[in-house]
Amino acid sequence: MRFYNTLTRRKDEFVPIEKNKVKMYSCGPTVYNYFHIGNARPFIIFDTLRNYLEYRGYEVTFVQNFTDVDDKIINRANEEGISPLEVADKYIKEYFVDADGLGIRRASVHPRVTECIEDIIEFIEELIQKGHAYEIDGDVYYDTKSFDGYGKLSRQNMEELNAGARIDVDDRKKSPSDFALWKKKKEGEIGWISPWGEGRPGWHIECSVMSRKYLGDTIDIHSGGQDLIFPHHENEIAQSEGRSGKEFAHYWLHNGYININNQKMSKSLNNFFTVREISEVIDLEIVRFFLLSAQYRNPVNFSQDLLDAAKSGMERLYNTKHKVEFLLEQAQGMIKEDEKEFVSKLPSYRELFIEAMDDDLNTADGISAIFELSKFINTTVSEKSSKEYLQECMNIFCELTNVLNIIQKKKSDGFDEDKINELIEQRSLAKKEKNFAEADRIRGQLHDMGVEVLDTRQGTTWKKID
Ligand SMILES: [Zn+2]
């Protein structure tokens, strides 16, 4: 298994620190609002990475934080007339609603900054003791010049960094690239007591602290969006390695951007969609499928046309699954002589899938392998198929789709199956009695319920109307 490692700028063979175990940290949302589609991408990608590692036999501990103190949260709290913690509580709940819709599992731990303040203070104290941080009038800064490796992830040297540092001329800082570990409390802000007076943590420190708290000094994989490479991840490395003297993370994985209708996402272009807004017009399962249809490092263009294409692709896979489900209801017996060759070919689709996913989590080619499998199943199953062969098809189809957590809905989700079967039976009876008007009436009734009746040689079945 190989991953493109931002640190080395090449695909590195994956070798975990501890055999069969993976420690993984991914930067989570700042909970001041519903999360937007740009954030959905890393959440889905790294959730899939975790699924895949588990599928390949690793025991994964996955930490994803919630930033629950931040300027944006404080502003939102003032707007809504509630406390910052109430804002955070509210949007953490909403995060899980949207994450569920997108098929994103809960992380092993979802730590919150406000629950780690003591750990953060201790961590900063150690950095000061080790000469990597300094206090000025209630603020604490990281001394970037004190850390030799500063710039190694984003491949920038100190001179470039300091020349390029934004002209936020805080001339109390030793170097322009120094960043805040602790911020002195301002009037009307939330704060905690610390050795440097009342204040709150800067943004970067939380990930170093939480990662260490739950995973130890060195982890296998650290991931996030490309936009986090600098300064956020660069600063995390400086903090963690400055304190421990050990390498922080062996593999740094970053996903590419999302464009909306070929334009960069931005507030000014008014194309900054939240997942909640999108869920009102499109099934979030399609969004997951769509985002996994591209290799994670490539940019993705989010547009109606491409979403429609993803939807019809997904429906093809659903049709295969439902067809096998339907045939299974009636089928019997063990593998037949003429099916032996088919059965022997099924594992090749698993190999194709693994080959794709092992190569830097290429979900695009992984999905192609599932389409190939789907095509093969469609051409080899019929009403004559044995139950055992159909079951083999179903098993491998579900095995692969489960890794990506796609094609998970049952045909009957959202439908009253008993009622549908009852109506189908009544319609069959009406047809038998040559009461075609009644049969048509029932077909119409089912149609109104969103159900299309299909008469096949093996009997009558149904599918959802698209
Ligand atoms: Zn982070």
Can you walk through the features of this model?
ATP binds at residue 267. Monomer. By secondary structure, this protein is an alpha/beta fold. It folds into 3 domains: 2-255, HUPs (Rossmann fold, 3-Layer(aba) Sandwich); 316-404, Anticodon-binding domain of a subclass of class I aminoacyl-tRNA synthetases (Four Helix Bundle (Hemerythrin (Met), subunit A), Up-down Bundle), CATH 1.20.120.640; 417-464, no CATH class. Helix content is 47%, strand content 15%. The protein contains 15 helices and 15 strands. The chain has helices at residues 37-55, 71-80, 84-101, 117-129, 158-164, 205-215, 229-244, 275-279, 284-292, 304-330, 340-358, 363-380, 387-404, 417-432, 436-448, and strands at residues 2-5, 10-13, 21-26, 59-64, 133-136, 139-142, 179-184, 199-201, 219-225, 249-255, 258-260, 263-264, 300-302, 451-456, 459-464. The chain has a 4-stranded parallel β-sheet, sandwiched between helices. Helix 7 (229-244) links the parallel strand 9 (219-225) and strand 10. The protein is elongated. The relative contact order is 0.11. Bound molecules: zinc ion. The site of zinc ion (ZN) has 4 residues, from helix 7.
Give a nutshell description of this structure:
The protein has 466 residues and is of the alpha/beta class.
Layout of helices and strands:
Layout: E1 2-5, E2 10-13, E3 21-26, H1 37-55, E4 59-64, H2 71-80, H3 84-101, H4 117-129, E5 133-136, E6 139-142, H5 158-164, E7 179-184, E8 199-201, H6 205-215, E9 219-225, H7 229-244, E10 249-255, E11 258-260, E12 263-264, H8 275-279, H9 284-292, E13 300-302, H10 304-330, H11 340-358, H12 363-380, H13 387-404, H14 417-432, H15 436-448, E14 451-456, E15 459-464
Helix pairs in contact: 2-3, 4-6, 6-7, 9-10, 10-12, 10-13, 11-12, 11-13, 12-13, 14-15
Bound molecules: zinc ion.
Enzyme class: ligase
GO cellular component, one term: cytosol
Binding site for ATP: 267
